[in-house]
Structure formats: structure tokens, C-alpha cells
Amino acid sequence: MEVSKRWSKTEPNLVTEKEIGVAKLSAHQLELANLIVDSLNLEHVKASEIDPHTPLFRDGLGLDSIDALELSLAIYQKYGFQIKSQDEQNLRIFSSLAALTEHVQNNRTDV
Fold first, then answer.
1. Backbone φ, ψ for residue 101 (5° rounding)
2. φ and ψ at 12, to 5 degrees?
3. Helix, strand or coil, per DSSP, at residue 23
4. CA atoms of 83 and 92, how far apart (whole Å)
5. pLDDT per residue over 3-18, tens digit each?
């Protein structure tokens, strides 16, 4: 993934996004972020710009319960396992991109 560069007003050198606080995604996180953006038609969101620790719901990415169902279906189709709606761990699983990625990597059957 290419890191874009910006000019710093205080330093004559270029400053990378990583240095100014934009989180870098792992390959697995980026793959899942793309699935989220594509399956939920999030036209205003770039997968590469999703912070892996930002909440997926409410004030974070702004997803709702219908989005969770659609995302669960997309995960099932791509990774071969179900996230059941009554699972007591769903709040933790869907808490952030990082948490969801960890769950997917631990449960996927497509590899």
C-alpha cells in the first residue's frame, strides 16, 4: 500500500500519513475493509482510510443493525462461516475493523 505524503508547515521535509496519525491497515484488515465498503455500498468511504480501531457502528463508521446482517452474509459468502445474530460475542466481534478481522481470521474456512 502506498503511503501518501503531505507537506508539513513546520518542517521542510515531507510527512507521511503514518507520522500524522492515520492508522495503517494490515493486508487482512484492508481485504475486510474492502468487503465492508463494497457489500454495504459505502460510496463515501475509502476502505484504505478506515481506522482499524474506530467503532463500526454509531459515531464510528455509522453502520446499523441491517448493515450487520448484510455484512454477516458477505462474510459467510467470502470466508465460509456464519456469524449468528444471537451470538453473545457480536458486540465484541463487530466493535471495530481490527476485532472483526481477528474473528474472521480465526474462523475462516476458505483457506
1. -60, -45
2. -75, -15
3. coil
4. 12
5. 443 333 344 443 344 4
Ranges in the chain, pLDDT < 70: 1-23
Check: CB of residue 75 under 8 Å from CB of residue 35: yes
Q: What is the CA radius of gyration of the chain?
A: 16
Please tell me the predicted confidence (pLDDT) of residue 29.
97
CATH number at 29 reads 1.10.1200.10
Report the pLDDT value the prediction gives residue 23, as an integer from 0 to 100: 67
Three-state DSSP class for residue 55:
strand
- Residue numbers of the domain that contains 33: 24-107
Q: Which of 95, 101, 93 has the alpha carbon at shortest distance from 33?
A: 101
Distance (Å, rounded) from C-alpha 100 to C-alpha 72? 11
In whole angstroms, give the CA distance from residue 47 to residue 59.
17
In a domain, 5, yes or no: no
> Has residue 63 been placed in a domain?
yes
> What is the residue type of 59?
D
